[in-house]
Write a structure and sequence with these properties.
The complex is a heterodimer. In chain A, helix 3 runs parallel beside helix 7, helix 7 packs antiparallel against helix 11 and helix 11 packs across helix 12. Chain A is mainly α. Chain A has one domain. In chain A, 40% of the residues are buried. Helix content of chain A is 81%, strand content 0%. Chain B has one domain: Rossmann fold. In chain B, strands 7-8-9-4-10-11 form a 6-stranded mixed β-sheet, with helices on both faces. In chain B, strands 1, 2, 3, 5 and 6 form a 5-stranded antiparallel β-sheet that branches. In chain B, helix 8 packs across helix 9. Chains A and B meet through helix 1 and helix 4 of A and helix 2 and helix 3 of B.
Chain lengths: 243, 258
């Protein structure tokens, strides 16, 4: 277990050791805030944060892979993966440690959006449960994107390639449930398959959480995706770490 | 003294404890056979030198022993632990320095060594003791608070050695430890190896034949993944009638592997 803690601690400290983390946080907070207020946060005259959460998937689709891309690509490129795995640390411990560090980093980014719920709670009487659920859903969504990002980071030694692949995969997952996609696909796919595609859509599961519906299926969706992609990352890293 | 006797004790002029026992290790990368059925043993007090041309399979063999690569077939025991089934225990007992001494460039030397201590479960007073011992031993006091990417090659190598020695392992596997160092630094590393040789089993790989004569008690010549000679430097020179340089050339170029 200590292998996991060693990697986790190192990675989390590593995020804040360079200016990149702070630049990232500022950009994230700025874009999240800007989109929220531009889309009529005050004009809606309603004390809820739906507008804020609605914009998060698209923002996280870019920010989460950017956070995850350095996890493995850089280690493989500069050879420190050889140091890491000749210490008494197993591959799963290292993969989970790094993933968790990245997830905590994004959790910190989400926590730093606290001025917006603070404003809502000051100006009106929002449903706090909904806001909490929104944050939980966002955290889970960030987890899924990070898991995908960490997989592609292990696949390529080049950070740019891995971030592009991860963004494409995340966008596919988000777009799967959009009405335009479903309409487009309904022309070619049988309805059974169409339901599968809809079930895979991150947007749908996220939206249901925003509405306050806690479905086991939605939670399971996020958890299974995270576990699956992290496991895949572990497998691919095991094969490729030495090349 | 035959190096291929089985059993824990090798009885010759004196009784030795076998610490490394390699049996028929084999590893391919696609169509290329990097390591082709090598077997040897090493005991406490041995400083084993791996000699061979580039691409001979020295690094691949060492990576397998350090549990970074899994062998395609064959196995090895290090300090009684099998590299396939017990790899964490193996990694606890060895210190490994990879070629080019990789590390995390944005970390300071101090935080890097603390990370290694975290991973190796050296905590509290034991950690302080280990750091106090290792920092002067590897002469990295002056750069303790510098980030690793600002260090020169010699200092990076010393940091790598520090990380390999910090837990005082019984077995050391060093891949080209003096590569790229200036003559003074080479001398220091060799002195360090000599000092530690008594209670440890050390495997180093090198191209520098004079290093083999100064530091190693045994030399294994590898080419094209196979062991071509396994003997002491003195015996090799005597049997092939020449300097180690000539012996090396003779062995690695005349023995054609079919």
């Amino acid at each position: 277990m200590n292998g996991f803690w060693a990697v986790y601690k190192r990675e989390l400290k590593g995020y804040f050791a360079t200016p990149v983390a702070y630049v990232f946080l500022v950009i994230f907070l700025f874009v999240a805030g800007y989109w929220t207020f531009r889309d009529g946060f005050f004009e809606q005259r309603q004390a809820d944060m739906t507008i804020f959460f609605r914009n998060l998937p698209l923002l996280l689709v870019f920010m989460a892979p950017a956070t995850a891309m350095r996890l493995w690509a850089e280690e493989r490129k500069n050879g420190s993966v050889e140091l890491l795995f000749t210490l008494p640390i197993t591959v799963p411990q290292a993969v989970i440690g790094k993933f968790l560090a990245a997830w905590i980093f994004l959790a910190i980014a989400l926590v730093l959006t606290f001025p917006i719920p603070a404003i809502v709670m000051y100006l009106g009487k929002p449903d706090i449960g909904l806001i909490a659920l929104g944050y939980v859903g966002s955290l889970l969504m960030a987890g899924v994107f990070l898991a995908i990002g960490s997989f592609f980071s292990a696949v390529s030694k080049n950070q740019v390639v891995s971030v592009i692949l991860a963004v494409v995969a995340c966008i596919a997952l988000v777009l799967a449930g959009w009405p335009t996609t479903i309409n487009y696909l309904s022309a070619t796919l049988p309805s059974g398959l169409l339901n599968v595609v809809e079930g895979l859509s991150l947007q749908n599961h996220f939206d249901s959480m925003l509405k306050g519906v806690i479905q086991f299926g939605s939670i399971a969706y996020f958890v299974v995706l995270i576990l699956g992609w992290v496991a895949a990352c572990s497998i691919i890293l095991d094969e490729r770490k030495a090349s | 003294m035959s190096a291929h006797m089985c059993g824990i004790l090798r009885v010759g002029l004196f009784v030795e404890t076998i610490m490394i026992s390699v049996r028929h290790l084999r590893r391919t990368f696609g169509p290329v056979v990097a390591v082709d059925d090598i077997s040897f043993e090493a005991a406490k007090g041995d400083v084993l030198g791996f000699l061979g041309p580039n691409g001979a399979g020295k690094s691949t063999a060492m990576k397998m022993l350090a549990c970074f690569l899994t062998p395609d077939s064959g196995t090895a025991d290090i300090c009684g632990h099998d590299i396939l089934t017990d790899s964490i225990a193996v990694r606890n007992s060895i210190g490994y320095l990879a070629e080019n001494a990789p590390a995390y460039p944005e970390m300071t030397v101090g935080s890097f060594l603390n990370f290694v201590c975290d991973a190796r479960r050296i905590k509290g007073a034991a950690r302080k003791k280990a750091l106090d011992r290792i920092v002067p031993m590897c002469s990295i006091d002056s750069v303790y608070h510098q980030t690793i990417d600002t260090l020169s090659k010699g200092y990076k190598r010393r940091v790598g050695l520090a990380q390999a020695l910090i837990h005082d392992p019984q077995v050391l596997i060093l891949d080209e430890p003096t590569d790229g160092l200036d003559p003074n630094q080479k001398h220091e590393v060799r002195l360090l190896i000599n000092r530690m040789a008594k209670d440890k089993c050390i495997i180093i790989s090198t191209h520098i034949l004079e290093e083999v004569e100064i530091v190693c008690t045994r030399a294994i010549v590898i080419a094209r993944g196979q062991i071509l000679a396994d003997s002491t430097p003195a015996a090799l020179k005597k049997n092939h009638q020449g300097t180690l340089d000539e012996v090396f050339r003779k062995i690695t170029s005349t023995k054609k592997i079919a």
